[in-house]
Amino acid sequence: MTQTKTDTAYYTITPGESPLVATAIHNGHEVRPNLKGLYNLTAEERLREEDPFTADWVAVTDNQIVGHYSRFELDLNRSPEKAIYRKPEDAWGLQVWKDELPEELAQESMKRYDQFYKEVKRMLTGLLEKHDCLVIYDLHTYNHRREGQSGPAANPDENPEVNIGTGNMNREKWAPVVDAFINSLSSYNYQGRQLDVRENVKFKGGHFMRWIHDTFGDSVCVMSIEFKKFFMDEWTGEPDQAQVQEIRQALQQSTHPVLKALEQVC
């Protein structure tokens, strides 16, 4: 199957030759013009819960999936019935909309959702015609200073710097791949220290991971990789660019042992 780059306003899907795929589906911040006036949240409030800079990290491989629009318009990591935040309990207690979102606008968003999953399925199907198995780095970030910019950070015992979500996978089969990734990231010399990398402490992975595993079975290993926002100010959105690039380097270094482990599994 010949594949071409899919570049829409909403997302970019770039197929390559490697069996490794990197995704940044929560990177986006844009919202549709016909929704902007309906938000109860400011752009800054929306940014706080998005995953900026994850698109910088997908460059570790040639297969890339990047979301350009905000999760507050459409969350690609949730099931169809939960992809639009309609109530505060859907969105960390935040009142997203001034009034109830008109259904016709919600359906416009859901058409984008369906198209995204259709395109991802086509991309992965094409890659599986070239490779027996695939590994996906499902890249995210998460907040740890929810009590305010000057408030205390969340308990580090329960909030590792890097959380590797491996839910809904055949963990026994993929042990060599997952262990190679965790070992590589944990041993990386990160500005003179080691990162705190743990598995399934904060998150086990979202709908995107589950959908891929359910659709492609044991042919695809998705690791949901959540970096705590220690590399940026989560309240202002300002990054430490040196750390953004250091994380990318750490991920890049992991690709060799991960691909080597993939050869053992498949």
Describe this structure in words.
The protein is an alpha/beta fold and 266 residues long. The chain has one domain: Zn-dependent exopeptidases (Aminopeptidase, 3-Layer(aba) Sandwich). It is 32% helix and 15% strand. It has 6 helices and 8 strands, in the order βββααβαββαβαβα. It has helices at residues 33-36, 43-49, 103-128, 175-187, 207-216, 241-265; strands spanning 6-7, 11-14, 20-24, 63-67, 134-142, 162-165, 197-199, 220-228. An 8-stranded mixed beta sheet has the order 1-2-4-3-5-8-6-7, sandwiched between helices. β6, α4 (175-187) and β7 (197-199) form a beta-alpha-beta unit. α4 (175-187) packs antiparallel against α6. The longest helix is centred in the middle third of the chain and has 26 residues, at 103-128. The model has no long low-confidence stretch (mean pLDDT 95).
- Average pLDDT works out at 95
Order of helices and strands: EEEHHEHEEHEHEH
SS content category: alpha/beta
Shape: globular
Using only CA atoms, what is the Rg? 18 Å
CATH class: Alpha Beta
How many strand segments? 8
Distance separating the two termini: 21 Å
Order of strands, main sheet, comes to 1-2-4-3-5-8-6-7
Report the major sheet: 8 strands, mixed
Number of domains: 1
Low-pLDDT sequence parts: none
Please report which band the strand proportion falls in: under 5%, 5-15%, 15-25%, 25-35%, 35-45% or over 45%. Answer: 15-25%
Helical fraction:
25-40%
Number of helices: 6
The CATH homologous superfamily name equals Zn-dependent exopeptidases
At CATH level 2, the architecture is 3-Layer(aba) Sandwich
